[in-house]
Amino acid sequence: MRQEGASEREKAGAIPTGTVSFLFTDVEGSTQRWDAHRVAMTDAMRRHDLIGRAAIEARGGYVFKMLGDAFCAAFSLPEDAVAAAVDFHRALAAEDFSEISELRIRAAVHTGTAAERDGDYYGPTANRIARLLAIAHGGQIVVSGVTQDLAIGAVPAQIAFEDLGACVIHPKERSPRGFVAKFGRISSRRRRRCGRP
Question: How many domains does the chain fold into?
Answer without folding.
Answer: 1
